[in-house]
Amino acid sequence: MNLLLENRSALVCGGSSGLGFGVAEALAKEGVRVCLVARNLAKLEMAVERIRKAGGDAQAVAVDLSDLTALDMAIEQVVAAIGAPDILVANNGGPPPADAVDFDPRQWHQQLDAMLLGTMALTKAFLPGMRQRRFGRILMISSTSVVEPIPGLVLSSSLRAALANWAKTLSTEVAADGVTVNTLMPGSFWTERTESLLFRAAERSGTPVATLMAEEQAAIPAGRYGSPEEFGAVAAFLASPLASYVTGALIPVDGGVLKG
Fold first, then answer.
1. Dihedral sign computed on CA atoms, order 25, 52, 57, 195
2. How far apart are CA 196 and CA 135, in angstroms?
3. Mind listing the pLDDT tens digit for each residue in 114-131?
4. Beta-carbon neighbour count of residue 1 at 10 Å?
5. Residue 199 and residue 213: Cα distance in Å, rounded?
6. Within a 13 Å sphere around the CA of 14, how many CA atoms are in the beta-carbon half?
7. Cβ 170 vs Cβ 123: under 8 Å
């Protein structure tokens, strides 16, 4: 299927690895100029090199999305690299595990900046151009925890739900201008974060990582973890002109794990 994305441009946050890289790679294969944003410059450079070797057009800007002051300079660098993006993929590595009873105000403020306010700042910067061009795609890479909170991940569950509600509200305000806003809810994908969470769980419980992996995959109707490439394919479609009538949606990409 031709997604009609050639000569479009995209900013992909958290694009150096995991699901963010999967989306960036999928878009680049469709002829999109991609700019990857993440904190780790070395990982960014490796990700850009992988996309370029495959024939894609990729640039990189290193910035911490929780540093709202630094975002202003990063926005200028993005525009210099790829022009004003037609597609914004909001994504980050996710906050550390925490229980609801363990309230740390500093941690909540830090993650609020990274997960909500950073995305809002990027949207504010690039949305006017999208509306003027009568084409824009804003995709939130979130989690199934938006609708089914995950025990031990209260920061993620709470803040991602807030972002999803903000995105839904935004979608109603810009739909008539040709801009769609959707939230993707990935389930269990084999990424660095999944591996990290499994190792933490193994340390706490004393259960071997292999056992936890087997239990986690057995709870997925598809019987396995998803791949970043599978996730990227869904995101690329939603970023395309072909998905112009899909907006304000919560879209699970989870192997069937959501129960509702």
1. positive
2. 38
3. 889 999 999 999 999 999
4. 7
5. 10
6. 25
7. yes
**Structure tokens of 224?**
């396995």
Give me 190's structure tokens: 């084999």
Nearest CA among 71, 66, 49, 58 for reference residue 27: 58
d(CA 163, CA 15): 19
Q: Rounded CA gap, 183 and 84, in Å? A: 22
Question: Mind giving me the DSSP string for 107-167?
Answer: HHHHHHIIIIIHHHHHHHHHHHHHHHHT-EEEEEE--GGGTSPPTTBHHHHHHHHHHHHHH
Q: What is the pLDDT of residues 23-61, one digit of tens each?
A: 999 999 999 999 999 999 999 999 999 999 999 999 999
Token pair in block for residue 243 = 């998905």
Does residue 29 contact residue 23 with C-beta atoms inside 8 Å? no
Span 163-191, average pLDDT = 97
Helix (H) or strand (E) holding 186: strand 179-186
Contact present, 137 and 179 (Cβ < 8 Å): yes
Number of helical (H) and strand (E) elements in the chain, helices listed first: 9, 7
DSSP H or E segment with residue 13: strand 9-13
Name the region of 223 (left: φ>0; alpha: ψ -120 to 50; beta: rest). Answer: left
* Contact of 33 with 82, CB cutoff 8 Å: yes
Rg (CA), the chain: 18
pLDDT of residue 99: 94
Q: What gap in Å lies between CA 166 and CA 170, rounded to an integer?
A: 6
